[in-house]
Design goal:
This protein has 144 residues and is an alpha/beta fold. 47% of the residues lie in helices and 19% in strands.
């Protein structure tokens, strides 16, 4: 399996270190390609970093995780976003306000198994979507 390129976003350095520790045992599977303190910084770095996945805190200054997820879904649909929060109440995201995301995790209680499973699931989903698009283009335009 190829390395999954991950960008970490949180305004708390301790949270970034925690996620790095959680992912650290899988260095052959994951590559941390960047970190940022808010969503705006991520958007400025996406072209250079080209991550497969973004793990982002929901509550951050300048641009929060929900806004970031929406912008990524609109401009970079191939990049998957996993939102993390320290809030115990996820109701703010229950009404479909988590664009492009399947899960919202408590960053204080997230386990290595949860992170690993969700990242791999979304990565495989992304690969299948890319292959489906490639097949469609090939059939439609005979460009490959």
């Amino acid at each position: 399996m190829e390395q999954i390129r991950i960008f970490l976003v949180d305004d708390e350095p301790m949270a970034i270190r925690h996620i790095k520790r959680v992912l650290g045992e899988e260095q052959e599977t994951y590559q941390i390609v960047g970190t940022a303190e808010n969503g705006r910084q991520v958007l400025e770095k996406l072209e250079a970093c080209r991550p497969d996945m973004i793990l982002a805190d929901v509550c951050m200054p300048v641009m929060d995780g929900l806004e970031l997820a929406g912008a990524v879904k609109e401009h970079y649909p191939e990049i998957k976003v996993i939102l993390l929060t320290s809030y115990k109440d996820f109701s703010f995201c229950a009404a479909g306000d988590c664009p492009g995301n399947r899960r919202l995790y408590d960053q204080n209680e997230i386990t290595k198994e949860q992170v690993d499973s969700e990242i791999k699931r979304l990565f495989l989903q992304s690969k299948m979507e890319k292959e489906k698009n490639r097949t469609y283009l090939k059939k439609t335009y005979s460009i490959f």
